Amino acid sequence: MASSIESAGKHLVLVGGGHAHVLVLEAFVRNPEPGLAITLVSKDRLTPYSGMLPGHLAGTYTRDEIHIDLEHLARAAGARLVLDEAVGFDRAVRRVLLKGGENLAYDILSVDIGITPDLSGIAGADEHALAVKPIGSLLDKWDRLADSALAPNGPRRFAIVGGGAAGICLAFAVRAFFTARVSDPVEVSLIGSSEAPGINAGMRRRIARALKRRRIAVHAEDAALRIDRDGVVLASGRFVPADAVLVSTHAAPPPALAKTEWAKDERGFLAVRPTLQILNDETAFAAGDCATMVAHPRPKAGVFAVRQGPVLARNLRRAVRGEALETYTPQRDHLLLIATGDGRAIGGRGRSLAFEGRLAWRLSDVNSNSRPML
Ligand SMILES: Cc1cc2nc3c(=O)[nH]c(=O)nc-3n(C[C@H](O)[C@H](O)[C@H](O)COP(=O)(O)OP(=O)(O)OC[C@H]3O[C@@H](n4cnc5c(N)ncnc54)[C@H](O)[C@@H]3O)c2cc1C
Q1: What is the pTM of this model?
Q2: Lowest-pLDDT range, 170-184, 205-219, 250-264?
Q3: Which of 26, 45, 49, 50 best tests ligand 1's pocket when mutated (most atoms within 8 Å of CB)?
Q4: Which residue in 69, 175, 211, 361 is a FRET match for 106, CA 20 to 30 A apart?
Q5: CATH classification of 4-115+253-321 is 3.50.50.60, yes or no?
Q6: Where are the domains of the chain?
Q7: If we measure between CA atoms, which residue out of 131, 140, 203 comes closest to residue 162?
Q8: Is 112 in the pocket of ligand 1 (CB under 6 A)?
Q9: Residue 68 neighbours by CB under 8 Å, 6+ apart
């Protein structure tokens, strides 16, 4: 029978410190695999836990509280951490190419590198807006924005482009954060429809009421066409004046995947089997936002990446041991919680469950407290 002896001398390379890989490392902390060498490649030493991000932006959690220290985690798992960016993959010779010039050979590979924002449809977004991904650079820019808003002539008009769950959370967080800290009137606008996956009709009604109560101007059936220094031009021709614009729209696959010969879905994300192996490569796995489970596609959300983590950990261990892999079917829906920035939240699940209040926020807080290793 195959055993951990099979994995001795093998090299498992994890590329990206996303949510699924955090859980993989945790699994190897709890249950080390004798003889297996593990390397984690990550652009950043700290990785944010997305469930706590809206709470941080609203001022509830500190920056330290929402981050997981990959150096600490890798050390505990007996893994080597390489702080570098993967810029390419050569599947024929099983190598990962790093920006710093290193060229890493692997026996088994796993990729969890998230997404990049697709700003291509909005002219001027690159220059004048703050993209919400990658989250690390969002937080740096957010801190600078917060500092400048505290100055007497700082920004007072904020626009958020993107009416999905992340955009709505951001609008509430911006309202809560700046209204509490700036004595002048603050204007907040949300541009984009709230027909996001996972937001049912009951939640939509509650969200609309909550936005109105907090005086957040909503341009629901309109799209941003152009962003300039003074605001956002909409498809309808309307102009939304803004001193600062945050963009949380469509996701694009990370550039490192562009030239690989791996199977992809129609949008360019890695196409994976129910075992989380890439369709055309038994030695390479992928999870989180950069991957699509072609048999069971789900929205790109941290909660799905977190759920893939334990399965990925077991299958990577089985793959290095030469054992049969398990298959995984993600849940059809999940509890969606939108923090309103004031100690309350709007929650829902499936087609009809919708609720709101302090208890909903407690739920999101409990979720945050059960985040992976901090
Ligand atoms: C404002 C906002 C609020 C959100 N709120 C929620 C929420 O409440 N609940 C929820 O479920 N989801 C939420 N999301 C979505 C959530 O952030 C993502 O779905 C989640 O982060 C995806 O996790 P991941 O594992 O795919 O990778 P990510 O968390 O994106 O991590 C990818 C990691 O890979 C590293 N990396 C990237 N490229 C490379 C490379 N080439 N080489 C090496 N390392 C690389 C990065 O440094 C990063 O550490 C929110 C998103 C935003 C923007």
Answers
A1: 0.91
A2: 170-184
A3: 50
A4: 69
A5: yes
A6: 4-115+253-321, 117-249
A7: 131
A8: yes
A9: 17, 22, 46, 47, 48, 49, 371, 372, 373, 374
pLDDT in tens, 10-35: 999 999 999 999 999 999 999 999 99
Total Cβ atoms within 10 A of residue 5: 10
Q: Do domains 4-115+253-321 and 117-249 have the same CATH topology?
A: yes
CA-nearest residue for atom 1, ligand 1, is 166
Decide whether any atom of ligand 1 lies within 6 Å of the 68 Cβ.
no
Closest CA to ligand 1's atom 9? 51
Q: Any idea which fold 117-249 has? A: FAD/NAD(P)-binding domain (3.50.50)
Q: Whose CA is nearest to atom 37 of ligand 1?
A: 113
Q: Does residue 166 line the site of ligand 1, with CB under 6 A?
A: yes
| Rounded-to-integer distance, Cα 331 and Cα 70, Å | 28
Q: Tell me: pLDDT of 3 over 70.
A: no
Q: Is 168 in the pocket of ligand 1 (CB under 6 A)?
A: no
**What is the CB-side half-sphere exposure of residue 86 using CA atoms within 13 A?**
29
Write out the two tokens for 333.
């829906």
